Amino acid sequence: MTIDARLPSDVELVPGAIKGWLKQLGPLKLNEDAVFGLQLCLQEALINAIRHGHQDNKALTVHCSIVADPQQIMIEVADQGKGFDVNAVPDPTAAENIGKGHGRGIYLIRQTMDEVAFLNGGRTIRMVMKLKGGRTGGH
Amino acid sequence: MDIKLEKINDIQLIVLDGELNMESTHKFKETFKAILKERNAKVIIDFAKVPFIDSSGIAALIEVCQNLGKVNARACLCHVNKKIVNVFEITKVHKLFKIFESHQEALRSF
User: What's the DSSP call for residue A53?
Assistant: First the structure.
């Protein structure tokens, strides 16, 4: 199953788009935790692309592709921005950062997905969720 | 997100209904404006009907709790589902909040 979408850089469109894509993944019978994790990672990746990659420039579009099979779901979110150095992102769980109001998105993605890679100078994030090990069996 | 305010004696109960995400954080933060004018307020934020939170929601929650602390208000959360508790724990922000399983436990904490 493949989903290929281009989303205008409008954060208000993000939750609805994600819910539509998750509905399309219904045949995989993902359990609640897997759906929650996918929703979280898609939300964080898309918001990062719109807010940081595109500076909320609605003329730019974010490209999202989701390729799913019974073994795994691979998601790529690509923006048209300047890119960034993922190694320069501070650890949000460091004592001095825990109370800060930003900087948790990439960390949440890394903690939730099985594989995460940044490509094209940080303009594309590739995330893989493996489906073996109790992530299916939902309704 | 729908937000209902109830009073239990001198304690302000805030019942959230919906996702705490980029879309709802503005409304969530606005809800606390009046409470932030009181000193020593006691606040319970009920998460029973919150199915999802993202990093924007976490940031809003931290901001609200920090602002309540500045006016000597005390706040706690209750009925937080396990998936959201897990998000709090992996980001370590659970250290910033008092989380109780029920209203009763939260009420007893004041």
Answer: I
